[in-house]
Design brief:
Strand content: under 5%
Strand order of the largest sheet: 2-3-1-4
Mean pLDDT: 80
InterPro entries: Anoctamin (IPR007632), Anoctamin_N_fung (IPR049456), Anoctamin_TM (IPR049452)
Protein name: Calcium-activated chloride channel-domain-containing protein
Main location: membrane
Pfam families: Anoctamin, Anoctamin_N
Keywords: Membrane, Transmembrane, Transmembrane helix
Number of domains: 3
């Protein structure tokens, strides 16, 4: 196959008519025979599912296998079958037109749908008509990845438009969906909705900062209501988008994972077919391992943060000996070195544990993995602030005397004094920490996410070029055709990019922003202002990251933001609890003196706040359910049209009758044309009948 562009579609043409590229790393094989055998199996598997292939050299030790459909009719047929399957599962409101080409004329094929159909054929198990290619797994250990190419013209226009606009329109979200799939589009829709709500939270936060006292009860209540309204509104918006994009309930109907390993066979109670399954009781037994794993991970990370926190308090607020300015960095060094290592170890364990649970569908696998990641990030994000708020400030004067080793060691002999006397609690410490996590840490994360990877990639590329020149191993692609050289250079560069995972961005928004806003914004009301500024940049930087720093995402479908919806719901509830506790513990009386704290009062405020949260949630949910939305209206319209059509068919009302009712002529196929063609319309039939009646009366 020659890599010649197609003229049908500009994006397709810019990719030389290539659908996907399989990155084959033959240098990882034990010997040439193994590499040759696996490569032959790869090409044979692609050919068996109707794919056309061609091969070009990749970077050192790799091959690039270019893949596309062998025929247009094969593509049209697969798209039609995919849409019929969606209709049978209730994802689409109506069946696609039986004439496949007419179906595509009514609903044009988008780039995302084309790539999704091709990807399903490449990766679905052979039992479902796919090639069963699973990169790095099973018999495909030398396949590093499968990825589509970026549409650089779209990317340039996308970044240009977003750099000059304030908000993201529904049309823009539709463009993202058509290019990158619903999963990525849902993330940007969530980010835009969150950004819009932040405008309200930021305005109230500024007013509270200047007009209300610190730890204001009014601010805490309004902030809790704001979070409840946002979550409930987003649930409603998800339904609208799912209906508009024809993916309603798509997460409930997915093909089996290629990695799924069934153990038994059973008869499907609905279809009567024999299907391979994994016993539910055995999966439940394996899932029970999540409990000790979560507890163990929580204990390890919490203990690390507690020890690090104790060292930080001792050095910064107790220790007055030599090298204090240097020792102040000790907690930072400990956290920087140990936390990433522990997170990496625990993440690897979580991945293996999730694979061991042997989920049948990708959505279930993803949900299980996200919940494990949620535990890690919850501890890393919030435990330092919980320690400060609920341990350091109220109990430091009691705890420090028992742990102050340095305080005793640094005092000269004969001048020792009680640690409790020399130790002074810093009541402003919690506010400083909140400002750090909501301002400084956000800026650092943004730089680490966008700027650092760009320069890192450039530096590594330059270093490799210098090293290859010195060693004489510089790769020169002398066999590249001049017409293909620029295109192949682009492909090789994209093959070296990282794989984009939308869950990383969702985790950042939910854990490192929304969570802080719900749990700790009463400490510093300007939290929403910081996030508002950050998110305006985040919208653009995430778009740039996808276009420049990452491979083009596989256009997976989704009907929501997945398990992160439950996570932000949990954070909203927890925010009502922590806000009540913070206001009760740190607010002052009218005279400026601290409140008298009691355990009964603390528990009472938490229970009262929690009940307010549940009441507010029910009220907001009920109110929103009474309001119509474009998505729900469209869904009812589609159902009505389908019911009317089926009713008409059951009563024998055909297209000709509809045409006559609408004033059209209609057509008739079959019968004696001379006999039926005398009277062209109902009016002519009436006139003819009247004429016969009149003639009959005259004769009488």
């Amino acid at each position: 196959m020659d890599l010649q562009p197609s003229s049908k579609n500009s994006a397709f043409a810019s990719s030389m008519g290539v659908d996907y590229i399989v990155n084959f790393n033959f240098s990882s094989a034990n010997d040439k025979a193994e590499a040759a055998t696996q490569f032959e199996n790869l090409i044979a598997a692609l050919d068996n599912v109707g794919m056309r292939t061609t091969v070009r050299p990749g970077t050192e030790g790799k091959l690039l296998v270019f893949v596309r459909f062998r025929s247009t009719q094969k593509l049209i047929g697969e798209v039609y079958r995919s849409r019929v399957k969606d209709w049978l599962h209730g994802i689409r409101p109506a069946a696609p037109d039986q004439e496949t080409q007419r179906s595509l004329d009514k609903e044009p094929l988008t780039g995302a749908e084309r790539l999704r159909v091709v990807h399903s054929i490449l990766t679905h198990p052979e039992s479902e008509g796919g090639a069963g290619i699973t990169p790095g797994k099973g018999q495909w250990t030398l396949v590093e990845g499968i990825f589509p190419l970026h549409d650089h013209e779209f990317n340039k226009e996308w970044m240009k438009r977003w750099s000059t606009t304030w908000a993201v329109s529904n049309e823009e979200l539709g463009n993202i969906r058509d290019m990158f799939g619903e999963k990525v589009a849902f993330y940007f829709a969530f980010l835009e909705s969150y950004f819009s709500f932040l405008v309200i939270a930021a305005c109230f936060g500024v007013a509270s900062y200047f007009l209300l006292p610190q730890y204001s009860l009014i601010f805490a209540v309004v902030n809790c209501l704001w979070s409840v309204v946002f979550v409930e509104q987003w649930k409603r918006q998800e339904v609208d988008l799912a209906v508009r994009w024809n993916v309603r309930s798509v997460s409930q109907f997915q093909s089996k994972r290629a990695q799924f390993q069934p153990e038994t066979e059973t008869k499907d109670p609905v279809t009567g077919e024999i299907v391979k399954v994994f016993p539910a009781w055995k999966r439940l037994t394996r899932q029970s391992l999540q409990i000790p794993f979560a507890l163990g991970a929580g204990v390890i990370l919490s203990a690390l943060f507690a020890v690090n926190f104790g060292i930080e308090v001792m050095i910064s607020e107790v220790y007055n000996g030599p090298f204090k300015s240097v020792l102040m960095f000790t907690p930072t060094v400990i956290g920087t070195v140990t936390v990433p290592i522990l997170i990496n170890i625990l993440s690897n364990i979580a991945t293996k544990l999730t694979e061991f649970e042997n989920y049948e569908h990708d959505s279930a696998y993803e949900a299980a993995m996200v919940q494990k990641v949620f535990v890690f990030n919850f501890i890393c994000s919030y435990v330092p602030l919980f320690l400060t708020a609920f341990v350091y400030v109220p109990f430091a004067h009691v705890i420090v005397p028992y742990i102050d080793v340095l305080g005793f060691l640094v005092q000269p002999e004969g001048e020792k004094m009680g640690t409790q006397a020399m130790f002074q609690i810093d009541p402003d410490r919690l506010r400083k920490q909140v400002i750090y996590f909501t301002v400084t840490a956000q800026a650092v994360n943004l730089a680490m996410e966008t700027i650092v990877p760009y320069f890192k990639r450039k530096a590594f590329k330059k270093a490799k070029e210098i090293q290859d020149k010195r060693s004489g191993k510089e790769i020169v692609y002398v066999n590249d055709s001049p017409d293909e050289r620029d295109f192949l250079d682009r492909v090789r560069n994209e093959a070296e990019l990282d794989v984009y995972d939308v869950n990383d961005d969702l985790r950042e928004m939910c854990m490192q922003q929304f969570g802080y806003l719900c749990l700790f914004s009463p400490v510093w009301p300007l939290t929403a202002v910081s996030f508002l500024v950050n998110n305006w940049i985040e919208l653009r930087s995430d778009a740039a990251k996808i276009c420049v720093e990452m491979r083009r995402p596989i256009p997976h479908r989704a009907d929501s933001i997945g398990p992160w919806l439950d996570n932000i719901g949990f954070l909203t509830w927890l925010g009502s609890v922590t806000s009540a506790a913070l206001v009760y513990m740190f607010s002052t009386t009218a005279t400026g003196s601290p409140n008298v704290l009691t355990l009964t009062g603390l528990l009472g405020s938490i229970v009262f706040s929690e009940h307010i949260y549940f009441v507010a949630q029910v009220m907001v949910r009920t109110t929103l359910s009474k309001l119509d939305s474009p998505g729900l209206i469209k869904e009812r319209q589609e159902r009505f049209i389908i019911r009317r059509r089926y009713l008409q068919e059951s009563m024998g009302v055909d297209e000709e009758t509809e045409a006559h009712n609408l004033g059209g002529a209609g057509t008739f196929d079959g019968g004696n044309e001379e006999f039926w063609g005398i009277q062209k319309s109902p009016k002519e039939a009436v006139d003819a009948g009247k004429e016969i009646i009149n003639i009959s009366k005259k004769e009488q």
